[in-house]
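Chain A, query sequence.
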Amino acid sequence: MGETKRKRGGGPKPKTPETATASMDIDDAAPPPTTEPLSDAGTSQPARRRGRPRKAESANITASPERRSSRHASEQNGDAGAVSSEPPLMVPSWESVARVVPAMDSVVKVFCVHTEPNFSLPWQRKRQYSSSSSGFVIGGRRVLTNAHSVEHHTQVKLKKRGSETKYLATVLAIGTECDIAMLTVSDDEFWEGVSPVEFGELPALQDAVTVVGYPIGGDTISVTSGVVSRMEILSYVHGSTELLGLQIDAAINSGNSGGPAFNDKGTCVGIAFQSLKHEDAENIGYVIPTPVIKHFITDYEKNGAYTGFPIIGIEWQKMENPDLRTSMGMKADQKGVRIRRIEPTAPDSHLLQPSDVILSFDGVNIANDGTVPFRHGERIGFSYLVSQKYTGDSAVVKVLRNSQIFEFNIKLGTHKRLIPAHINGKPPSYYIIGGFVFSAVSVPYLRSEYGKDYDFDAPVKLLDKHLHAMAESADEQLVVVSQVLVADINIGYEDIVNTQVLAFNGKPVKNLKNLATMVESCDDEYLKFDLEYNQVPLPPSLPPSHICMHSLHFSSGS
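Chain A, predicted structure.
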């Protein structure tokens, strides 16, 4: 989201390193161990004490509606002649109950067994673990949930509301960018008595929303309500991308992930998927809105698989400075954004040039701050217009170049990162020769090597390429020596860790497969690897039998 700090009237609070860099945390769907007290914030509940409770403790406990109603009933039964000062309980109308119950019956609990790859030791996998989350039934005998709820899945099961049976599910598609996954169940019994959820229109600000799911704290279905607080392009943590999102003030806890958000008409307006964890923020949850959900479903139906959200393939700069606009030859009535860099892997990267000013996208004028009209009284980043397209679609882009206006029909493609944010469920690629373990760098790899704060602890050279480098070709990878397995032939090289391989025997390394091909076809006496920081290990050339002694794996597409 960018800015997560909030100032108070008394002046800014001093930030610790942890709180000053608060980020969007994805709800972990795994339930806590039953031997520990349940707590949404990760803190333990106060232990029970004998005797009279303290006032400070009783002030923090608010009775649930069920407790209040039972207490009211007991007071009436205890003294029939007493006059109660509490107002009578309001009985909900049967019309509203009939509207909500079918929608809630479409919400299911998702049980998943995950087996994550071990990026530090890529020839094996980590210990499996289980998690639970939420999902809901849509048309076509399909179920939607979050992508992070079934990431690296080994087995997925679904359980309907009020049922004791868990049904085996099959994952049809996983959309990493939008954090949505589509499932199905082959057992016909699962679909009996279940009505699909209907999607509603994009809600307005202050519209009421109800989030339904199976969060921690119990086994039965849970309902929390709130209103739409904000609507803008926001960061999807799991997908490492930016798409349209809704901010709501309804509680979204671990296990709510994948559950639907309903409006007051009982139609679905989004999917709960992440929340903001920060000391200055309370009850800030985020929902994937219906335009993103429908894009995912339509993409799957058109292509038979998930192809992703397209991009133009540029980095741009705001044109809010009047002197900058004048120097670019812009007139007083012209607005737009300046192109800084162009992705070499973009389908039509040769049409646009750095310092071009994009004036409009598909006929919609772009403001100097990069926004376009959204709804009455609202503006939104123009990337929203791009995200409404599909991979392979074209768009008309009007640019200002050397004080002249040009129009180009640009083909849109998916984003090719030099360091990908995901490996899309594939096992990690690696290559071992002479004890040197070569791997392709990805964000999961960095997270495995350096932990949650990899963007602070990873080597500066890798972080610079992660944040700023662009892939020159679709199959380019950043290859590193992840570690050196100690052996007699590599004495003295044991300290080489996560260092990029620039060339082999003077030839640039394009990707991991290219490196393996050059090594296996080498007839020289020594294998010369040119590494970052001018390191040059020279292990002796080994016969093919020594190569076959080690595990050699390439995931498809590498």
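Residues 1-86, 91-98, 545-558 have pLDDT under 50 and may be disordered. The first helix runs from residue 17 to 20.
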